[in-house]
Design goal:
Keywords: ATP-binding, Cell inner membrane, Cell membrane, Membrane, Nucleotide-binding, Transmembrane, Transmembrane helix, Transport. It is a multi-pass membrane protein. 63% of the residues lie in helices and 9% in strands. It binds adenosine-5'-triphosphate.
Length: 598
């Protein structure tokens, strides 16, 4: 999903922020105390002018300087009370906001784990990364500071207005009328700023995707000398983001200017009016001082509205972006009433299976278009077909990386959709051509699918079968941390480790999507020999791109135009199927070419 993807319909700020309520709710009492403390601090700040009025109209006007000390002490006490309230606010709010952020981040990560592969096919990694890191950080800061200050400042303004009216309703009214246009200005600001805030967050996600992709593909970029080209693309994206940030800053600056200018204008008008009222003896000097002391207290809350309003909009937009992921449909999930297979035998059946990707055009035929195939327990079935015939796609269906769009995949006669995903994936393990490893130790990588964290015998056995004993020569043996995605290993080494991982899962069914493609022919033969011993008890479906892999199999299934065209032993198919002979001869041709290169 890119920045051009349709963002969720724009809600109001409050309803967007309310999307985080399930995570905020447990902490509301504490945050409420925090808000009360902040309000306490503000009220204390508002009381100080009142004390000053009494001081000015009383002891100072009457010429009693000895009474100034108690007033001074009172103001000092009020100052201390204000500081304590501010401390309490921080204490009450900081912990919850970090807890909320952590809970939301964990929920997001858990959701990403649950979401089907087709979701990840559609969404850019940077968009997910920026939501998990940047948006949630923004929400935390808003909850810890913005939300409380916004509420308190609004309350301060309302209470302060009341106090201004108390000192002089005429001055209060003048103050209110002159400041009223702020409402219209902030309304316009919200409309402009919302779009820019969302755009900037999406562009940040796009930028993160670009960084991620270029780091991931750094070898390709370097090998093809495309670094400068990638940099040019990145620079364009970065300057798009910069432009959006400048637009935001302009909106922000315009609002702040109005929020400074309008209250100052109102002070000037109120000053003239106030002096005149004092001359008319409608107001005392003390009341006028108190009015202005109160109005000064309101200066910061009014000015800060611009910044806090922008902050709220950004947090609201971040909250919408978070929910867009959280609300994504989980199309592949556990059944309501799951069946279980206590002792799987490993009979795998594709029964009239159809599948098409979400982005397939309506006129296109199904990519898997009525495939039927039975693999009996302990059998090794090779799957071959011309490139693009749908072999990889078919192998993704048994473990429900994608769900069939019609038909059934059955394990021991049970529809795979009737098992929990956890159980299904303990029965069926996969190894892919593109071997993905994690930045963890060799042991952790091998045991990833085994359900055990510590099983040295199993690790050793699996490594032997996958001909991956090279790991013992790594600097720290099995405890060596593998670089990100196994980048520190060769392609063939990575594939062998991924194969060891699939073997260590000790599944009833092993699905191997051409996991030996990066191996030299000799190593492949050794792995195949070792696999034969394992596969004797395991049902296996192996996508084959080399004739030697086909010979490992008990039978071969030929895939053609989305169907299983023929099934038989290698020699049977060679004898009776012209298309099979064509596919095999192209595989032989490819293998010859590859050998020529080696
Ligand atoms: N995630 C996806 N979303 C949309 N289309 C896809 C996706 N993955 C594969 N395809 C399309 O499905 C078709 C079949 O791909 P698939 O990888 O299953 O074929 P294959 O027989 O394994 O090919 P090869 O032998 O080259 O590995 C291709 O045309 C491909 O473009």
């Amino acid at each position: 999903m890119s920045s051009s993807a349709e963002p969720a319909k724009r809600n109001g700020i409050l309803s967007s922020l309310a999307l985080t309520l399930p995570y905020v709710r447990p902490w509301l009492p504490r945050m409420f105390v925090g808000a009360l403390s902040a309000l306490g601090a503000t009220i204390v700040a508002l009381v100080i002018p009142m004390v000053m009025r009494v001081l000015v109209d009383g002891p100072l006007a009457e010429g009693n300087p000895e009474q100034v000390l108690p007033f001074g002490l009172l103001i000092l006490g009020l100052g201390i009370a204000e500081a304590v309230c501010i401390l309490l606010r921080r204490f009450m709010v900081t912990g919850p906001s970090t807890m909320i952020e952590a809970t939301m981040r964990n929920s997001l990560y858990a959701k990403l784990q649950r979401l089907q592969v087709s979701f990840h096919d559609r969404w850019q990694s940077g968009q997910l990364l920026s939501r998990a890191v940047q948006d949630l950080g923004r929400l935390r800061r808003f909850l810890a500071f913005g939300a409380i200050m916004f509420t308190v400042n609004m309350l301060t303004i309302v209470i302060g207005m009341g106090v201004l009216f108390y000192w002089s309703w005429l001055l209060g009214l003048a103050f209110l009328v002159i400041n009223a246009p702020i409402l219209i200005i902030t309304y316009r600001f919200e409309r402009q700023y919302w779009g820019a805030a969302r755009l900037s967050q999406d562009q940040t996600g796009d930028l993160a995707t670009t960084v991620e992709q270029s780091v991931h593909g750094i070898r390709v970029l370097k090998a093809f000398g495309r670094g400068p080209h990638a940099l040019a693309g990145f620079t364009t994206q970065a300057s798009d983001l910069q432009e959006t940030e400048i637009r935001k800053a302009k909106f922000d600056a315009t609002l702040s200017a109005w929020l400074t200018f309008i209250p100052l204008t109102s002070y000037a008008v109120c000053l003239f009016l106030g002096v005149w009222l004092v001359q008319q003896e409608v107001l005392t000097v003390g009341q006028l001082v108190a009015f202005f002391a109160t109005a000064v207290v309101l200066t910061f809350p009014i000015e800060s509205l611009g910044f806090l309003y922008a902050f709220s909009i950004e947090a609201a937009s971040a909250s919408v972006r978070f929910r867009e992921v959280m609300d994504a449909d989980e199309t592949i999930h556990d059944p309501e009433e799951a069946t279980t297979i206590a002792r799987p035998e490993g009979r795998l059946e594709f029964r009239d299976v159809h599948f098409r990707y979400d982005d397939a055009g309506p006129q296109e035929r199904d990519l898997v278009d009525g495939a039927s195939l039975v693999i009996v327990p302990g059998e090794t079935m090779a799957l071959i077909g011309v490139t693009g015939s749908g072999k990889t796609t078919l192998t993704a269906l048994p473990s429900r990386l994608y769900d069939v769009t019609q038909g059934q995949v059955l394990l021991d006669g049970v529809d795979v959709r009737d098992l929990t995903l956890k159980e299904l994936r303990t029965h069926i393990a996969m190894a892919f051509e593109d071997a993905t490893l994690f930045s963890r130790s060799v042991t952790d990588n091998v045991l990833l699918g085994s359900g055990s964290d510590d099983n040295p015998e199993l690790v050793e056995k699996s490594l032997q079968i996958a001909q991956a004993s090279f790991v013992h020569d790594l600097p720290e043996g099995l405890e060596t941390q593998i670089g990100e995605e196994g980048m520190s290993l060769s392609g063939g080494q990575r594939q062998r480790l991924a194969l060891a991982r699939a073997v260590a899962a000790e599944p009833a069914v092993l699905v191997l999507d051409d996991p030996l493609s990066a191996l030299d022919v000799e190593t492949e033969a050794q792995v195949e020999d070792a696999l034969r011993t394992v596969l004797a008890s395991t049902t296996a479906l192996i996508v084959a791109h080399r004739p030697s892999t086909v010979q490992l199999a008990d039978r071969v299934a030929l895939m053609r135009e989305g169907r299983i065209d023929d099934v038989g032993t290698h020699s049977e198919l060679l004898a009776r199927n012209a298309h099979y002979r064509y596919v095999i001869s192209s595989l032989e041709e490819e293998t010859r070419k590859r050998k020529g290169y080696q």
